[in-house]
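seq:
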Amino acid sequence: MRVSTVKSRAMPAWLCVQLVLHMLCSTSGASRQLTQLFGSNTGESKPSFRPDPKLVEGLIQAGFSRAQAAQALQAVGNENCCEPQMKYLFQITKRNDGEAAEQGKACHRFENTDFDGYAVVWGSANFQTNTDDCCQSCKDFVPQPPSFFPCNIWVHCGNKEGCFAPAAGEFKYGQCWLKYQEHPENPHVNMKGAYSSDYRRTHPTAPAMVQWTAGVVVPEGAAMQNGTWSSRSHWR
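struct:
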């Protein structure tokens, strides 16, 4: 007598998963739990956060880039601007003591140029006779609260009659602004070279050339780039 045998087949893995999910969804509250775990398939999504453009411009005015301003508002929100947002930027860009010590001592100078950056010392509080002394004051700067940023950007006014800037205030001879940028080897540039005729029509008192001299402090041997226009370079 011949006995027939039947070979059993393993259930496909995808079918096992479907059966398990079906059994789970049939229990009380399981559907909600699965939705939380795997998300809804309705295609609905939360509206994306939009930083307030006026607050973005405010943080740019404080010396941060447009990308940094948007990042801070995205992380912290638009409320109570701008101390919490600036504190966030201080924390994420803060360098430890070792990094600050290794920031370098090479000084590069750029004539007829103004660099952007977060001002760690205003020019009205730091007068230097020449660009060498201005650069040295940047090298000697000790990071201070609340930012604890080192100085790696400096901007000096060497014009005896003062230097033009499209901002309120007096910019006198000898002013040495100390600033911080994340990537000083490729600095953000506010103004450079000759002012265009269109610019001078908007600012009749502007000279033919930018009167400031700017510079960076970077590690010895760092490869310098020509820089990129800052978020403030288009302001009129």
